[in-house]
Write a structure and sequence with these properties.
Number of helices: 28
GO biological process, one term: transmembrane transport
Subcellular location: Membrane
Low-confidence stretches: 599-661
Keywords: Membrane, Transmembrane, Transmembrane helix
Membrane topology: Multi-pass membrane protein
Strand order of the largest sheet: 4-3-5-6-7
Number of strands: 9
Largest sheet: 5 strands, mixed
Radius of gyration: 34 Å
Organism: Oxyrrhis marina (Dinoflagellate)
Structural class: mainly alpha
Shape: elongated
């Protein structure tokens, strides 16, 4: 009884922990770790403060909504999240998508209200996907297409900051005579441009120091809060400069903590319909970027994460944040790296303490940011955006040893990249998604089929050296067996590709005279559906009319069982071939299958597709000069009066397609 009660209590505890992971890590939390979490959390809070203003500017929302987004969402993530180092807050990519979605709204106040509604919608979608366990949907984004999209987004973000980097709107003109040097070159704009260049260099230098293994301790500390260093320098510079040289700055920021209120339009059907496409796109980007960042450091730290829990955590965080004036939030890669390097061990340091720091800032210290130059925020965004650009993937794709015709990875990357730059961020993401799905369909419908050859025996004392079968297209010195075609299908055999495979087999048999057997190497074919099995059955019958046998080798467990049910007792294939290796299949084909008549040309024959019941009534005339093939068909020697051999060893075989289905 006591054991049962203990087991029940343990089961309840595990169930609670699966919903609220804080129940598990909170009980195991060591108080000795609080010092590291406290120091790292304060560092993250300072970084998050400067980043949140910059990201709010990128999202075209009121600047104060940046810090608002870093209060409630991180606290909610502490309850539901499974990554100990993930830092939830604003992010450049999600802020860019938010700004693109709201760019047609003229008023800043209306854009701010729409941001909160968008946060609620994104949170709702993420939470529903987590509850319904739909995490697999985001796997339709191929890494190559996503890399091109993210790199293109980074370039778009940098270009969008040119106005703030140069201290004002970029000059436009229709002719050379319309250009005004006096408007383009002012003391304020010159100062902003030079200051921006200097800040970008400093941020890049501090990033290199952060990545370096050996550096001075105070430089290492400064690199952890490089955004705050740049913002502080900008405040001092802007406050001390004369008015004519002073760069555009933030100015007065509304202080105080926001009231908890329902976002405008949350019950409006028209608003939901209008923003739904943008919300779906942003939700996908939130999860993909957040899960990738969190998983990288979870693997480094040696613990596991739950995709379902992350969906729910990010969803509830965004949903609740929308009621407190937040814009859509995500897990920041750079902040998560800071949390890992600063020795943070729990969400207390990565989320709770930074959120408390932001609360103090919003309540008491917004005046400190009065003189923060807008060019400083733009520099923070630009350097962060350059960090997300994934040029290395393009280099890897380019160096991949493939022919130009096969180097589709480079083409997919470039299409996603250029589509994002020239068609817009949302169109770029649609291109990336469409290409990913299109390539998946293409690979399923047109899997690679290799003809295998035997490697020559290099060492006489190695009995296994000659048993290596490799694709002849990739290994020029591999030699095929005379009279035997060995084919390997790389992937599933299903309704989408079985016709193509059977056509390929028939074409190869017709092109190569004197073929006695085709060996199907199934080591890379884990599944066969019913359409594929029916096509294989038709192929066996069609090949036998030309005196060619189909023999299986290296068949995996699931396809083997299905082939046994459909063809095992029919005599169409040798029962033992379902357990053959390639060498055993070759030996069987040489000894048990007779070659076709030499003077009879091989013609490609399209077999009429029909069902198994109709094939049971069919008979083939088999020549007495082909006793081995007759033995293969019947499974034993034929009677002297039987030149007519049934396609199946049992006339009343019950292995029909209907019973199989």
């Amino acid at each position: 009884m006591a054991n049962g009660a203990g087991a029940s209590k343990s089961s309840v505890s595990q169930h609670v922990e699966s919903i609220f992971p804080i129940w598990g890590w909170g009980k195991r939390y060591d108080r000795d770790l609080i010092r590291g979490d406290l120091i790292g959390g304060i560092t993250l809070g300072l970084v998050l403060a400067s980043q949140s203003f910059a990201h709010a500017s990128l999202a075209r929302a009121p600047l104060i909504q940046g810090p608002y987004s870093c209060v409630l969402p991180p606290m909610i993530y502490c309850l539901f999240g499974t990554c100990m180092h993930a830092s939830v807050g604003t992010g450049a990519l999600v802020a860019l998508l938010t700004g693109e979605a709201l760019k047609n709204i003229p008023s800043e106040a209306e854009r701010g209200a729409a941001c909160t509604l968008l946060s609620v919608m994104v949170g709702t979608l993420l939470a529903l996907m987590g509850i319904c366990r739909l995490a697999f949907l985001v796997r339709f984004f191929s890494r190559v297409a996503l890399s091109g999209f993210i790199t293109g987004s980074g370039v778009v973000i940098c270009l969008s900051q040119l106005q703030d980097l140069t201290g004002g709107p970029l000059p436009t003109w229709t002719t050379v005579h319309d250009f005004s040097w006096a408007d383009a070159i002012t003391p304020s704009r010159v100062m902003a441009t030079f200051t921006s260049c200097f800040m970008v260099v400093v941020l890049g230098w501090l990033r290199k120091i952060k990545e370096a293994e050996v550096a001075h301790p105070w430089l290492k500390s400064a690199s952890q809060v490089k955004e705050l260093v740049v913002a502080g320098y900008g405040i001092l510079l802007c406050a001390c400069l004369p008015e004519e040289f002073r760069m555009p700055y933030i100015g007065e920021v509304e202080g105080g903590f926001p009231s908890f209120k329902v976002p405008p339009g949350v019950l409006s059907h028209a608003k939901w319909i209008e923003l739904l496409p943008s919300a779906v796109t942003i939700a996908a980007c939130v999860f993909i970027s957040s899960f990738a960042a969190a998983k990288r450091f979870a693997l480094k730290a040696g613990y596991t994460m739950s995709a379902t829990n992350e969906f729910v955590a990010l969803g509830v965080s965004n949903f609740c944040g929308g009621f407190l004036g937040a814009i859509p939030t995500q897990v920041g890669l750079s902040r998560t790296a800071i949390a890992y390097e600063a020795g943070i061990h729990s969400p207390i340091g990565s989320n709770l303490i930074p959120a408390l720091c932001i609360m103090v800032l919003v309540q008491c210290c917004t005046g400190v940011f009065y003189y923060v130059p807008r060019c400083a925020l733009a520099c923070i965004i630009v350097v962060g955006s350059l960090g997300i650009c994934d040029w290395s993937t393009l280099g890897v794709l380019y160096r991949t040893p493939e022919t130009w015709k096969q180097r589709r990875g480079v083409a997919i990357w470039c299409i996603s990249f250029l589509g994002t730059i020239f068609l817009g961020v949302f169109s770029g993401l649609l291109w990336a998604t469409g290409l990913s799905i299109l390539m998946l369909i293409k690979d399923s419908a047109q899997p690679r089929v290799y003809e295998l050859g035997r490697l020559p025996q290099y060492y006489e004392d190695d009995p296994y050296a000659s048993e290596h079968w490799v694709p002849s297209q990739l290994y020029g010195h591999a030699t095929p067996e005379e009279g035997i075609i060995v084919l390997r299908l790389e992937g599933d055999l299903n309704f989408a590709n079985c016709e193509r495979f059977t056509d390929l087999v028939e074409r190869k048999v017709c092109q190569r005279g004197g073929t006695r057997a085709v060996i199907f190497d199934g080591c890379s074919c884990p599944r066969m559906d019913m359409t594929a099995l029916m096509n294989l059955q038709d192929l066996v019958v069609g090949l036998r009319t030309s005196g060619v046998a189909l023999v299986f080798a290296n068949t995996l467990e699931r396809p083997r069982k299905r082939l046994e049910k459909l063809l095992g007792g029919t005599g169409l294939i040798p029962q033992a071939s379902l357990t053959f290796t390639i060498d055993e299949a070759v030996s069987f084909s040489k000894t048990q299958v007779a070659p076709p008549a030499p003077d009879k040309p091989q013609k490609r024959r399209k077999v009429k597709r029909t069902n198994l019941g109709q094939f049971q009534l069919a008979r083939l005339k088999v020549s007495e000069s082909m006793p081995a093939l007759a033995q293969l068909a019947g499974g034993e020697s034929m009677s002297s009066r039987g030149s007519e051999v049934s396609l199946f060893s049992r006339a009343n075989s019950n292995h029909s397609v209907a019973s199989m289905a």
